[in-house]
Amino acid sequence: MKKNDGNKKSISTQTAHILLKNLSRGGSLIKFSGTIQGNSMLPWIKDADTIKIVPITSKIKVGDIVACYEESNSRFVAHRIIKTANNNIITKGDNCFAPDPDIKKEDLAGKVAEIYRKSVPVTFGLGTERYLIAILSRMNILQLLTRIVRKMKFIFS
Predict the structure, then answer these.
(1) Are 115 and 125 in contact (CB under 8 A)?
(2) 66 touches 79 (CB < 8 A)
């Protein structure tokens, strides 16, 4: 661990993943907060938003946003589940056209329970609408709609 500012400590994303995964398996109710870097979950999670990750204590479903460590890129990823099959799940960033490689359920670090933008809670995308978002994402319609809306905002602003 490296000292950050004051009493806060920072750890590598790989270490955070291992810690969360093991604590979750042991039934510990730890919450982990992290700042997002990137735009793969636009428009619901933006660059510099903060997310809270909690252990998976109930069945994960299509539409849930889950976190895991992506070894190929050495980074922690929080993406939406678009499909489940047996012990595998398929995730995808809401702003991405291609799904992520299959993930085993036991390799998940946790589930995104809260999103904050400048300390203000963002709730849309985590409620019952998450199922529709996942379906639109799986069909690549969501990404097209997002781009159209952004272009319209640019034209009319």
Answers:
(1) yes
(2) yes
pLDDT tens digits for range 116-127: 988 888 877 777
- The answer to whether 46 and 36 have CB atoms below 8 angstroms apart is yes
Hey, what are 105's tokens? Answer: 């359920």
In terms of pTM, does the model score above 0.70? yes
User: Which string of DSSP letters, residue by residue, matches 62-88?
Assistant: TT-EEEEEETTTTEEEEEEEEEEETTE
Cβ(17)–Cβ(108) under 8 Å?
Answer: no
